[in-house]
Amino acid sequence: MADRKRVAVVVGSTRPARICGGIAAWARDALGEGSDLAYDLVDLADLALPFLDEPVKAALQQYEHEHTRAWSGLVQGYDGFVFVFPQYNWGYPGVLKNALDYLYREWRDRPASLLTYGTRGGDKAAEQFIGVLHGLHMRVLDTHVEAVITDQDVDENWQLRDLDRTLHPNRALLRRIDREMTEALG
After folding, report:
1. CA 118 to CA 90: how far, in whole Å?
2. Which single residue of 41, 117, 136, 167 has CA 20 to 30 Å from 60?
3. Per-residue DSSP letters for 28-92?
């Protein structure tokens, strides 16, 4: 259905051997179950944005580099966003902050939620990130997910042993996010 509103599920970590892509894909599938919205993965690793290299502030939208124009066009193609990322040292990944900082007006008034994860769920990263979303004038949904992933959930290569079993307790929250996103985009 071409008329469906589109929501990007952003893979917010580029770390080698990351688990973020699998978590984001799982979340995309859970969000999309029976939804009127179309959820797509947007992987920051695929974009390979360099460290912010635009000479003027993003609010002016005077982009000098093709990678910025491409990122702007991609973001403008979505109606809402669900950001998925780990908590690193009580914060969120720098690559995600970099991607946000490239743009400004493109984020304005777009509804957003997040799924953080870590041994304590990612509440510290979520708190910081929500502050940034407010600074970008995004409409932060009431519901977000803080998924607890313990050392017992990962194998010797730091990969999730059973993605569905680990994340299943968060499925109801993702369904609520879909309802809130649908309402915000209605």
Report:
1. 10
2. 41
3. HHHHHTT-SSEEEEEEHHHH-PPS---SS-GGG----SHHHHHHHHHHHT-SEEEEEEE-BTTB-
Q: Could you tell me the pTM of the whole model?
A: 0.97
Q: What is the pLDDT of residues 83-109, one digit of tens each?
A: 999 999 999 999 999 999 999 999 999
By three-state DSSP, how is residue 170 classified?
helix
In CATH, 6-184 is 3.40.1390.20:
no
Instruction: Tokens for 51, please give them.
Output: 């460290």
154 DSSP β-pair partners: 160
In tens, the pLDDT along 59-84 reads 999 999 999 999 999 999 999 999 99
The domain limits of the chain are 6-184
Type of residue numbered 33? E
Asked if 13 contacts 95 with a C-beta cutoff of 8 angstroms, the reply is yes
